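Hi V.,

Quick status before I head out on leave. The structure for the redesign project is tokenized and pasted below; the design run finished overnight.
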């Protein structure tokens, strides 16, 4: 998630910054420690050399040395004269100034100066060392404190960062959820959120995009509706004339032309239904016997059988129910074997009236079932793919549902389920 990634990123950036700061503090502390120890040693060394050069070597000033200091008088031959019994001389620094050296298993900072007698003769070196173990321990403790502090600050900052980032991203998450609910076929989502800042800009951009999509869809639908309407009128005349001609002259060419004109007329009706978009939600409802609708439609097709278990009284639009039934029967006839074996059944199941249309075609696989009600999807090559989306839209406008049972090689059965008249009236009363 973006919130977690940003929170972790903030924690990592802060941790790196704290690590660099801790490193800088450690270096500055070490430099200051070295400077303090060097200053102390140099002052003590200056005092000792002054006393040596101005008087005879004695023990009076040696006892004044501070705790942790190692003072040695070493001859030019490397022998420690004072203090007597020293196991080894302090190592000299490799360069002028001070240096941390190993001495008897400890870390010691050493400075040195020429050992001059009052006469001015140099007979060796005066070496002064300071036990740096305590200072190094202080530095180690400082490092631990810095590391622990950095870890704690990074952890707390990460948690706070997650909370802050989560709060700042909450409006974006809300916009994402609203966008996910957007129906591309009919975008109506109203985006909400802050009106200022980047989130406000995203909200305004989404709102403008949806408005542009709706405007374009409405324009396209209006154009398609106009085309479909212009086609429907002459097609109705042609289909009527061919219907009359076929009744008088059952010539195969005439009946074929009649069937083709019907197909074009029904296709134009489907196109008009889809183009108008809102039409499916504005149907004129009345008491309808679904069986009567089925009888009328089945009568238009040869080889289609009808079984009525219940008259199927419901609240709906006879025209739209006929359109749905015709689309399913046409679809079944086109998908069935030759000669077509198609059956239609009207029955009741609980509080539902159902219309089932079955064929003995090749059936549908899972991929086809997933896209069955998409516009431009067709069960047959060259099909227009308008009938089934229209069926689904009109069925839902009647408070019903459509389902499909099919498998490859076993045909398909489409079932329209509508609430009975009693169920609709009881729902309205409630």
């Amino acid at each position: 998630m973006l919130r977690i990634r940003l929170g972790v990123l903030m924690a990592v950036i802060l941790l790196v910054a704290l690590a660099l700061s801790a490193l800088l503090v450690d270096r500055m502390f070490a430099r200051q420690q070295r400077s303090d120890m060097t200053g102390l040693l140099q002052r003590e060394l200056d005092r000792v050399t002054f006393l040596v050069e101005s008087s005879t070597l004695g023990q009076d000033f040696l006892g004044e040395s501070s705790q942790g200091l190692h003072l040695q008088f070493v001859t030019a031959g490397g022998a420690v004269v004072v203090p007597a019994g020293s196991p080894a001389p302090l190592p000299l620094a490799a360069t002028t100034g001070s240096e941390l050296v190993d001495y008897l298993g400890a870390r010691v900072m050493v400075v040195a100066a020429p050992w001059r007698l009052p006469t001015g003769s140099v007979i060796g070196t005066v070496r002064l060392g300071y036990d740096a173990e305590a200072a190094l321990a202080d530095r180690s403790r400082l490092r631990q404190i810095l590391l622990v502090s950095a870890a704690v600050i990074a952890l707390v900052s990460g948690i706070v960062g997650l909370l802050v980032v989560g709060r700042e991203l909450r409006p974006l998450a809300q916009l994402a959820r609203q966008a996910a609910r957007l129906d591309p076929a009919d975008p109506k989502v109203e985006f909400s959120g802050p009106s200022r800042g980047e989130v406000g800009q995203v909200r305004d951009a989404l709102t403008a995009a949806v408005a542009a999509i709706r405007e374009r869809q409405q324009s396209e639908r209006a154009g398609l509706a106009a085309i479909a309407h212009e086609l429907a009128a002459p097609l109705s005349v042609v289909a009527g004339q061919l219907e009359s001609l076929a009744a008088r002259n059952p010539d195969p060419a005439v009946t074929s032309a009649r069937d083709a004109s019907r197909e074009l007329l029904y296709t134009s009706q489907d196109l008009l239904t889809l183009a108008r978009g809102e039409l499916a939600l504005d149907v004129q409802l009345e008491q309808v016997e679904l069986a009567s609708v089925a009888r009328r439609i089945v009568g238009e097709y040869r080889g289609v059988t009808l079984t009525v278990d219940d008259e199927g009284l419901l609240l709906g639009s006879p025209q739209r129910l006929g359109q749905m039934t015709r689309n399913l029967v046409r679809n079944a006839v086109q998908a069935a074997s030759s000669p077509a074996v198609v059956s239609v059944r009207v029955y009741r199941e609980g509080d539902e009236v159902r219309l089932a249309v079955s064929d003995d075609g090749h059936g549908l696989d899972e991929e086809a079932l997933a896209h069955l009600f998409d516009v431009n999807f067709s069960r047959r090559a060259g099909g227009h793919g308008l009938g089934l989306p229209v069926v689904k839209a009109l069925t839902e406008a009647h408070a019903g549902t459509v389902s499909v049972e099919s498998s490859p090689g076993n045909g398909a059965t489409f079932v329209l389920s509508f609430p009975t008249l009693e169920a609709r009236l009881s729902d309205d009363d409630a």
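Above is the designed sequence. The domain at 2-153 is CATH 3.30.450 (Beta-Lactamase).

G. will cover questions while I'm gone.

Best,
W.
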